[in-house]
Design a protein that fits this description.
The complex is a heterodimer of chains A (about 300) and B (about 270). With about 300 residues, chain A is of the alpha/beta class. Chain A folds into 2 domains: about 5-215, Rossmann fold (3-Layer(aba) Sandwich); about 225-305, Alpha-Beta Plaits (2-Layer Sandwich). Chain A is built from 10 helices and 14 strands. In chain A, the strands form 3 sheets. Chain A has a 6-stranded mixed beta sheet with strand order 6-7-8-3-9-10, with helices on both faces. In chain A, strands 2-1-4-5 form a 4-stranded antiparallel beta sheet, with helices on one face. A 4-stranded antiparallel beta sheet of chain A has the order 12-13-11-14, covered by helices on one side. In chain A, helix 2 crosses helix 3. With about 270 residues, chain B is mostly helical. Chain B has one domain (about 1-265). Helices cover about 80% and strands about 0% of the residues of chain B. The chains are: A alpha/beta (about 300), B mainly alpha (about 270).
Chain lengths: ~300, ~270
């Protein structure tokens, strides 16, 4: 894999706060998921990759060149920021046109690219509507459009699925996968594991400003599965349910909520656990109110991994 | 050929940034406030006209004197300062607070060009907001049955417009520098314009030369109270020297602002 983005012993701190700590990585063509809980350092890393921040220590290169103040490189890079900020008075088409005019394109080329980018993100029908009147999903899409309109080779997308509806998520996921297949380098961040899994299997796992793991997402899944999986069940008769569950060998522990209306079970085989649950409920005449899994959030995953 | 291509590209980038900034500045809430200030100046011109027409003062007052007083006080001391302060300090800081700066910094344009484009937009909007007020005030005060003073003093109007434009450039460059550099630039700008300039301008010695207003007063044909006071404690600087100093200040401030924008990391809060 030829390196398009490379970080060597990269650190970034703001005063006393270390946001990124001695990170080394290499990113080539294809989609790479930057995975980590909030505050892991994902956004800082993305800002370093896109030259918005200067490393406190170490070096970051894009296309083999240092990125800080290397403005010609930005013609080959696109960035979709996390923040929901725009020139609100502009229409979607005006926004893209203004930004594309900052690239070495003629007027006709700009117009063509505006049309194409709007079509790609499915916003052609609202091209002349002011951004202030866009829905959250449309705003996310126009933000993505400005990142891809100049057809960059490296795209850095910070939480591109945040606030999108399911259809929008599906569309963006498909686009990201397609760009990866076309040989673009796409760095996409998320704090939700299954979102990243839907876009790529290659990940950089971050926590507390460090890269914990680099590679295939399935390996991370395996690591997670080696640890007990917590399942919280709120039901009509939690004690009766606990009685039924306690005999199964995969169930490691059961705790009751202080209110007495729910229990949390730890299982080493979550699939089997979920499979037998409906039958147990029926046999014991228990009404299910809610099932949640605290382990679905990445914070718990990282807690496992760093232990 | 490559040089001319580079110049054309630079000019295009400058124009794009200036257009984008002008649109943002013009449609901001600041324009309402500045518009109100402009109306106050016009209202003062109206009052001045009423004083002239109704002979409300015991001695005969020429229109040129009322116009001069209006320009030196309301326009130079307030309108120009407020316009450049509000828009100038917002050039970069508003994009940082609004978190839109990323869109500009992620383009293949040198950051100094971005700063320069923004400064051009500031001078542009400053001219739009101030110069028509100057011309309208002239019309209000001079148009009447006897049009001779109107034509006689046109050279004064043209000179005033030129000096006010220079003031827009000078104050604009200084406040742009503050905006690019400091977080609470508007407060520091206010302290400079109405604290430092007010105090230092009437102090004897060299410190008076550490203000923009001193050089403007040295070339402005009209005097306000502060200007008259400052002239009591020291001489004016030679007009040519004043103009050269103002131009050097403008270049220095804009260059420093561009350098700051180039080197500073603007951390946009998530």
């Amino acid at each position: 894999m030829s390196a398009l983005v490379e970080g060597k012993t990269l650190s970034k701190w703001y005063g006393q706060v270390v946001a990124l700590n001695n990170v080394t990585f290499t990113i080539g063509q294809g989609v790479v998921g930057l995975l980590g809980p909030n505050g892991a350092g994902k956004s800082t890393l993305m800002k370093l990759i896109t030259g918005q921040l200067r490393p406190s220590q170490g070096e970051i290169t894009v296309f083999g060149e240092r990125i800080w103040n290397n403005f010609p490189l930005f013609h080959r890079m696109g960035f979709c920021p996390e923040q929901d900020s725009f020139y609100e008075r502009m229409t979607g088409a005006e926004f893209l046109s203004a930004l594309l005019h900052m690239h070495p394109f003629g007027d006709a080329e700009v117009a063509k690219r505006v049309d194409s980018a709007l079509e790609t993100v499915n916003l052609s029908s609202v091209r002349d509507k002011k951004i202030a009147a866009y829905s959250k999903g449309m705003r996310q899409r126009i933000k993505l459009a400005q990142a891809i309109a100049h057809d960059p080779d490296v795209m850095v997308l910070d939480e591109p699925l945040a606030g999108m509806d399911p259809v929008g998520r599906r569309d963006i996921i498909q686009l990201v996968r397609q760009w990866g297949k076309e040989g673009k380098c796409v760095v996409v961040s998320s704090h939700i594991l299954h979102e990243v899994e839907a876009m790529t299997s290659t990940i950089l796992l971050m926590h507390n400003g460090k890269v914990l793991a680099e590679g295939d997402v399935h390996q991370i899944r395996d690591l997670i599965d080696r640890h007990p999986h917590s399942i919280r069940i709120r039901c009509s008769r939690p004690r009766k349910l606990a009685e039924a569950l306690v005999g199964f060998p995969d169930v490691e522990s059961i705790h009751f909520d202080p209110e007495g209306d729910a229990l949390t079970a730890e299982s080493r085989k979550p699939d089997e656990f979920y499979g037998r649950l409906p039958e147990l409920m029926l046999d014991n005449d228990i009404e299910l109110e809610e099932i949640t899994s605290p382990d679905d959030n990445l914070q718990a995953v990282f807690h496992y991994l760093v232990k | 050929m490559a040089d001319s291509d580079g110049v054309a590209k630079g000019w295009r980038n400058l124009k794009t940034i200036a257009n984008l900034t002008l649109d943002t500045l013009f449609w901001s809430k600041k324009t309402l406030f500045v518009g109100l200030l402009s109306l106050i100046v016009l209202a003062l011109a109206g009052v001045g006209r009423a004083v002239l027409v109704l002979n409300l003062v015991p001695t005969a007052l020429p229109a040129s004197q009322v116009f001069g007083t209006l320009m030196s006080t309301a326009v130079m001391r307030f309108l120009v300062v407020f316009v450049t302060l509000f828009y100038g300090t917002a050039l970069v800081s508003e994009e940082v607070e609004g978190k839109t700066l990323t869109y500009l910094f992620m383009r293949p344009i040198p950051k100094p060009t971005i700063m320069l484009g923004k400064y051009v937009a500031l001078v542009w909007i400053g001219s739009i907001m101030v110069l028509p007020v100057v011309m309208a005030s002239y019309l209000i005060l001079y148009v009447g049955a006897d049009m001779r003073p109107f034509f006689q003093d046109l050279n004064v109007l043209c000179r005033d417009i030129g000096i006010i434009f220079l003031a827009l450039l000078a104050y604009g460059s200084f406040f742009s520098l503050l905006g690019a550099w400091l977080k609470h630039s508007i407060l520091i700008g206010l302290a400079y314009a109405f604290g430092w300039e007010g105090i230092v301008a009437v102090l004897p010695g060299f410190t008076r030369k550490l203000t923009i207003t001193h050089y403007l007063q040295s070339i402005f044909p009209h005097q306000d109270t502060l200007g008259a006071l400052s002239m009591l404690v020291g001489d004016r600087t030679d007009p040519l020297e004043s103009i050269v100093t103002l131009v050097l200040m403008i270049v220095l401030f804009v260059a420093t602002a561009s350098l700051i924008v180039r080197e500073k990391e603007y951390v946009l809060e998530q």
